[in-house]
Fold each of these.
Amino acid sequence: MLSVIVPAYMEGSKIAGNVRKLTDALDRIASDYEVIVVSDGSTDNTYQEALKTAGPHVKVFGYTPNMGKGFALRYGFERSTGDPVTFIDADMELHPKEIGIFVKLMDIYECDVVVGSKRHPQSQVHYPGLRRFQSWVYQVLIRVLFDLNVSDTQTGLKLFRREALNAALPYMLVRRWAYDLEFFVIARMKGYRKFIEAPVVVDYQFASTTGLGAAIQVLRDTLSIWWRLRVRHTYERQQQVPLAEVREAK
């Protein structure tokens, strides 16, 4: 069974339509799948609107307070049962039909992770030059600091073998911005190194979370990961990190 984790924050006006868009695509991809929608401390009606889509294939969870996307993904993963597992952003800037291509690539290459990449030569991406430059600089920084052979860690669509997630997620400390990078760092240390990249078609909507404050926090999280990896060697001796307690929506 394919599990699809959908973290959502303040998506009340769009979440129901986007989940239906997702399930319409999945109906064409797999006969056996589950969608796990996680409202990450949204203060609008995201949770209530998402509940309208609940059914045999869709489970909806919510909690307070807002804990960050990385936390939401792990929360959803621990409530999923399928293999492989994919993460897709609730705004559906990346069309869910791409998931079918990712599943086929994983079967063909027997890889640990299929990574959606805006830099894949077959990707179709249109966004401002400044954003493109910022993204390029960040990926250069990652190659220098971590020697990680992934050209785009931040695109919000990835497909994982469940065992790779099981090996890395319980040790992750980043809850928000650079959780993707921390996953790759820990997974590689655990012996999961076969990452392949796949093209994506991106319909950018430019949410406010892509501003200067977010960029600063990404950089801060990235340097913290480097410090824990190269200086403190935290990941080599770290115990599993339990999920923080949250107040679950009823």
Amino acid sequence: MAIPAAASASGGAPRSAAAHTASGALTLRGTNVNGDVGAVLSYARWGVRGVVSNYVAGQRVTLHVFRNGALILSPTVAVRRDGAHGVFAASLSLAGVGRVSVEAIHFATAAQARLVSPRFSLWLVAPDVNPGEVSYAVRILQYQLSVRHFVVGAPGVYDAQTQQAVLTFRKLAGLVRNDVANAAVFEALAAGAGVFTVRYPSQGRHVEADLTHQVLALIGAGGVVQRIYQISSGKPSTPTQLGMYRVYWKEWGTNSDGMVDSNFFNGGDAIHGYAEVPTYAASHGCLRVWIPDAASIYAWVRVGTPVDVYYRGMPI
């Protein structure tokens, strides 16, 4: 299912100004809209900013906000001087779903002609998605996850890869450990939760395994997170040993123990794909990852790559 790009339609042209009035142009754009998705969540806070090309003291602009073609809001905002121009801004939060369009109108005064901006349009979507769903809400979700370095799937599709990203985010954000993408997830993303803090940035290109949150991060040469995955480390009876290690051997494919694309860093302990990756520590000491992620991790990790294993708040 193709997802159309957000459109912009003309809301009218300026009327001819009388000789004693200023003319000009009025422009409008959205703010705090999710990336290039062209959509916002129902009840989420977003905004518009505009410019009047010629500033006149006392200017005011009225916004006409339409949802699915019906006018639902018409707030009036003051214009302030910015050099020769006038600027204005408004914050919006709308309920429901559908197509939203906003236009700004400067009604004619003795000092300024009537001006109408082109319309700014976007989609208003519900803050939850279901497995297999194709929607703008999924696009927003994927954008927010990807900028935090979680690995998402096909654009606009709540597929298995994106569900894994949601589960990994939930672990870091301290939410219930499942792959449900509901309002709690969207609210936590909006609040800035779920950020992986690199513990050893001076090591440059390395791997960090955070056993507190049961996640693994691939850290780039600049000490910056590149990708984050969920893991299952060693269970209490066979715990993963804390420490600073290096990958000393790599084994491609599936071995006799069912380990897929293994990167050994401490004796028989490895980062590897496995058929079962529960949300808690359950392995024999290895760092299990979801099998579809194993190949890309294997390709990134090299012999000699440092692997740091720790609990948050505890020294190695």
